[in-house]
Amino acid sequence: MAKINMLQAINQALMTAMEANPKMVVFGEDVGHFGGVFRATSGLQDKFGKPRCFNSPLTEQGIAGFANGLASVGMTAVAEIQFADYIFPAFDQIVNESAKFRYRSGNEFNVGGLTFRTPYGGGIAGGHYHSQSPEAYFTHTPGLKVVVPRNAYEAKGLLLAAIADPNPVIFFEPKRLYRASVGEVPEASYHIELGKAQVVSQGTDITVLAWGAQMEIVEQAAAMAEKEGISCEIIDLKTLAPWDVATVAESVRKTGRLLINHEAPLTGGFAGEIAATIQQECFLSLESPISRVCGLDTPYPLCHEKEYMPDSLKTFEAIKASLAY
């Protein structure tokens, strides 16, 4: 075990996977000798050479198209989209090609060895082109897996599992935790199961659900609630597509309440899908309406970032409102 941050854990995962798989390549804008804008790929080109870790042109559509081509001929392609905000020019390649490649051929060919890594979310004063959380767009597309880690340990295990998974995966990395999240991480290879949520903290009064960077926020809110005698059960969803309905439903049947927190805007956010499914699964167990504490329905604001964020205070107030219903 070593105490490292999330960036180092991601770098370790890439290094480990490349050592184990000579068919794996890593590419994207400035990922080569420079190591990417956040330095997540530092040292890979030095160790594995330019043929296996290289810079792409500044074209996200081209990165995704090239990734599809590599994966279609049996390579393991790990493509970096420099910011999640930049993934939209690649949207057609991802949702119309990556996601459907297997199905258009009846599984005669596929791009299962494909992983897109991309940093998402705010909290770094990045403004509206470097702060978005676009995960919900991709959960709407059958054929893609969507994964979001909450800390360094989870980042390494989930990324290794994503690279090894026989399906295309979009791996969203919470960039405000890149250096802020530090924890004990095994130096050896390990996988954390995709599609499985984790009950991080047991509770009896309300289930609080989040993923990625917002896990820290809901844990802070739960600590506030505990001082007022409210017991929160906290769940990290980890994988949004496919998401673990069974674990969430079991918790809500016990607590009778559910609060979902995500940084993306409220309308069309993934919290809506969770809320609809859980009210169907747990309708007779619910003691109050399902709550959503999310980002605002506005372009991500630079000078009003604190007002935009679904922070611990907003979450705490929503927890109290749910209990008082």
Describe the structure in your own words.
- This protein has helices at residues 6-20, 44-48, 60-72, 91-98, 101-104, 135-139, 152-164, 214-227, 245-255, 270-282, 305-308, 312-324; strands at residues 2-5, 24-28, 53-55, 76-80, 114-120, 145-147, 169-174, 182-185, 198-201, 206-210, 232-236, 239-241, 258-265, 291-295.
- The protein has 2 domains: 2-185, Thiamin diphosphate (ThDP)-binding fold, Pyr/PP domains (Rossmann fold, 3-Layer(aba) Sandwich); 198-324, Rossmann fold (3-Layer(aba) Sandwich).
- Strands 3-2-4-5-7-6-12 form a 7-stranded mixed sheet, sandwiched between helices. It has a 5-stranded mixed sheet with strand order 9-11-10-13-14, with helices on both faces.
- It is an alpha/beta fold.
- The chain is globular and about 60 Å long.
- The N and C termini lie far apart (46 Å).
- Helix 1 packs parallel to helix 7.
- Helix 10 links the parallel strand 13 and strand 14.
- The protein is built from 12 helices and 14 strands.
- The chain is 36% helix and 21% strand.
- The mean pLDDT is 97.
